[in-house]
Amino acid sequence: MVLTLVVSQLAAVGLVASLRWVNPPTTAFLLEDGLASRRSNSTAEPPIREWVDIDAISRNLLVAIIGHEDQAFSGRGGGVDWQQFRKRVNAWRAHQPDPSGSTIDQQLAKNLFLWHEQDPVRKGVEAYLATLLAQELPHRRILELYANLVEFGPGIWGACAASWYYFGVPPSDLALDQSARLVGLLPRPKTFSRAAGGGVAHGPTDVVAWSQAHIARQVADVHGLSSLTTIGVTGLASDGGGARRCSAPPPDVHARLARGAQGTGRQA
User: Fold this and answer.
1) What percent of the chain has pLDDT over 90?
2) What confidence category does residue 174 fall into, taking pLDDT thresholds of 50, 70 and 90?
3) What's the CATH number where 258 sits?
4) What is the torsion angle, in degrees rounded to the nearest 10, for the CA atoms of residue 45, residue 256, residue 54 and residue 124?
5) Residue 59 falls within a domain, yes or no?
6) HEC assignment per residue over 206-256
7) From CA 177, how far away is CA 30, in angstroms rounded?
8) Per residue in 236-246, pLDDT tens?
9) How far apart, in whole angstroms, are the C-alpha atoms of residue 32 and residue 185?
10) Quick one: which of 12, 142, 144, 182 is 20 to 30 A from 65 by CA?
11) What is the DSSP letter of 48?
């Protein structure tokens, strides 16, 4: 039993440490998404993703992600806010609503390795893996992984696919308003689509997404680039850094638009 635990621990550390240099070819969430789209009776679109280096991602989007998802990210030394974690555990035990959100590290751990359903086992493993991520990877790399592996809409994974699909621009050119609209989708990415003329299709009752985008815009304005320089993201995406720049849309984006897989709601 002890040997099994030691081997499991070493394997987990080794796998997480490899992410310092290796861009994961897939994730648990991506695999689930791909399986869903291949079911015979499924109407789900196949997932679209293409890697883009952090140096080629608009600073507007990176700041909006931090501002919306985890404002303490740049200055926190660990992957879990344990005070908030305890509050969440107590709320779950009391059958009350979740009082707070997860850190970027926790969300990355979940997307990479775990499953969607919220249960005590997943939350415990998620906290353990998030702690490993924070120990083994610098903040800059964690943010790069997150920006590439998070879902920005049904089957739209990462900054490269999202920027081209919604706005027709490379991720380096995303404006702050566009970035805020994208991060407003993160809590419920499956429920939104592309507007017919480009942009995000929000219905008249999508108050939550509207307000979240507005909050992201405000927080990004306040924090500016300071949250990025703290973790080693310097210069601008337009400066030309990064070998994988996503300077042209992934072919699957054209294919999806050609199929008419876009919303008809008003642009946000």
Assistant:
1) 48
2) very high
3) 1.10.3810
4) -10
5) yes
6) CHHHHHHHHHHHHHHHHHCCHHHHCCCCCCCHHHCCCCCCCCCCCHHHHHH
7) 27
8) 898 888 889 99
9) 19
10) 12
11) B
